[in-house]
Write a structure and sequence with these properties.
Elements (H helix, E strand, L loop, with lengths): L8 E4 L8 H11 E2 L4 E5 L12 E5 L5 H10 L5 E5 L3 E3 L3 E2 L2 H9 L4 E5 L7 E3 L4 E4 L12 E4 H6 L7 H15 L3 E5 L3 E3 L1 E2 L2 E2 L1 H9 L8
């Protein structure tokens, strides 16, 4: 692959969060340019937008987060994927550039995160815009928007893990072996959910985009 728009966008969710799906999709399509096919992984429920040509719906079945995600990823025929979650709502334009793919290959990356910086992580500058996660940084494994080597991602997911356990235990596991996880600071989306409840920032985003939320 040599074009970024051939890399699948993998959205992994569960049916109880279906109230977030339509707004995630509308905001993603509004703001994210030059993206590839969207693989939308649910337990069983079909999203309203599954009829779009660039959306593939995969049913993972019920069970633990890790088992469901591994099942879904095993059905996607691609060495690389972008991964994200349904409560990360796009708030400004971003273009997925072929340069991201070139960086990934040139630096032999396991993962390239493209998201807002966090004071919880430890990174070192590589170039003006590119940083590398330090070997012992917390949250080296995380579920922020990122380009992943799919097999590397899958090898660090345990079937019985929750997403929170995966970020903590997965990060601890790769400290032992070392990793090539990199980061580009870009505040293009906003987490909008806490403990299953839409937060005030989420309502602000909906208001600014003339959207509605039919959930909790």
């Amino acid at each position: 692959m040599n074009k970024i728009n051939t890399i699948p966008i993998v959205l992994h969710t569960m049916d109880s969060y279906s109230a977030y799906w339509d707004n995630w999709f509308k905001l993603f399509k509004k703001h994210v340019k030059n993206h590839g096919t969207i693989y939308f992984l649910t337990e069983d429920k079909e999203p309203d937008f599954s009829f779009f040509e660039d959306v593939v719906h995969i049913k993972t079945g019920y069970g633990d987060w890790g088992a469901r995600l591994l099942n879904g990823l095993s059905q996607i025929d691609s060495d690389l994927i972008f991964y994200m979650q349904e409560d990360f709502w796009a708030i400004k334009d971003i273009t997925l550039e072929d340069n991201f793919l070139e960086l990934f290959k040139n630096y032999k990356m396991d993962c390239l995160k493209i998201c807002l910086n966090s004071e919880l992580i430890s990174i070192s500058p590589i170039t003006k815009d590119l940083y590398k996660y330090d070997r012992y940084s917390p949250y080296s494994i995380s579920h922020q928007f990122a380009l992943w080597d799919k097999q590397y991602f899958m090898s660090n997911i345990k079937p019985n893990e929750s997403p929170w356990e995966n970020e903590i235990y997965g990060s601890n596991r790769i400290k032992e072996t070392g990793h090539n996880i990199y980061y580009i600071d870009n505040y293009w989306y906003q987490p909008v959910c806490s403990r299953g409840k839409l937060q005030p920032i989420g309502y602000d985003i909906l208001k600014n985009n003339n959207l509605k939320f039919y959930g909790r």
